[in-house]
Amino acid sequence: MLELIDVHAAYGPSHVLHGVSLVARDGEVVSLLGRNGAGKTTTLKAIMALVDVTGGDLRFEGRSLRGRPTHQIARLGIGYVPEDRRVFSDLTVTENLRVGEGDGRAGASGVRWTRDRVFGLFPKLADLAHHRAGSLSGGEQQMLTIARTLITNPRLLLLDEPSEGLAPVVVRALADNIALLKREGLAILLSEQNVKFARRLADRAYIIEKGAIRFEGSMATLDADPAIRAAYLSV
């Protein structure tokens, strides 16, 4: 579904990605692991054309993303949940969801995500439907950002450090929600520092360090290699 081939990316003169290659297949959850500053967020931003891609290619369902603007990439079926959430703080929960409502296409499971459906996934948001998004807790804002992205009916979801800064009980609930999305067949590329969180959800993992991929394999293979974890993940 998604393929990055020798991708290089930069912020102005600062070269951040150095030949990143990875694959995410239809219906699987792939985790991109690494320490803070390793290049995880830049990789997701490169996919969405939010950073300058200076080399290589990025392909989604066989089509190159190079040169496409961000809104076109989103319309192809890639949903992006940034690490800083970026809710519209002055709008209500319902109004935030209306902003994201798609064009009627079906999602990965062949069923459309509607407001009622995302409220079923995140019942807390239904209780807060008329509250301004800026008044929500960090965990509630994370739920809202994911819900707003789902309502665009993506076929691939990019999640950038969804567990960052959340209380453990909220992280567990969020993992349950993402596991449900996985069961529905939604392909997910999950950027994370929290290896325990990723382990519960991911089929495969890549480790990125200093803008380059240092490991690729199953979560079981990663769990069985303490030297790799110690070298690149501090676990």
CATH topology of one domain: Rossmann fold
CATH architecture of one domain: 3-Layer(aba) Sandwich
N-end to C-end Cα span: 30 Å
From the spread of the alpha carbons, the general shape counts as globular
Give the strand order of the largest sheet, numbering strands 1, 2, ... along the chain.
Answer: 6-7-8-3-9-10
Number of helical regions: 10
| Beta strand count | 10
CATH superfamily of one domain: P-loop containing nucleotide triphosphate hydrolases
Query: Low-confidence segments, ≥5 residues, pLDDT <50?
Result: none
Radius of gyration (Å): 17 Å
Largest sheet: 6 strands, mixed
Helix content: 25-40%
- CATH class annotation of one domain: Alpha Beta
Mean pLDDT: 91
Helix and strand composition category: alpha/beta
Q: Proportion of β residues?
A: 25-35%
Secondary-structure element string: EEEHEEHEHHHHEHEHEEHH
